[in-house]
Amino acid sequence: MSGGGITEAGAAGRIRLRLYVAGTSPRSTRSIESVRRLCERRLGGACDLEVVDIYQQAALAAADGVVAAPTLVRLSPLPARRIAGDLSDERRVLDGLGLEGLDVPPAASGADRRETVGGGGGER
Known about the structure:
The protein is 23% helix and 23% strand. With 124 residues, it is α/β, with parallel strands linked by helices.
């Protein structure tokens, strides 16, 4: 198992991911689809995915040290890790986030997956 310290996957055994995208471009759409697919197929749906548009929430992107989009950040389990660029290669993404080889039990149902989309003003 890579990434060191992957023994707890956040609250209730879940992995928290934040995906930074740039607007509604085709590249952003492909990145969102790729990460959703990864969460379902490789992480058994045991992750919470937050999608943040860097144009609408530049302060949040700056706080996470994001300078390019798309960027995927693993918020938990700690330590935080990030990967930028093409997110279509699942193995590369899992390895970059330190999640390759992580044993995650399959989700009980699709309703167990949580996803939020960061949008307009005032959200954090």
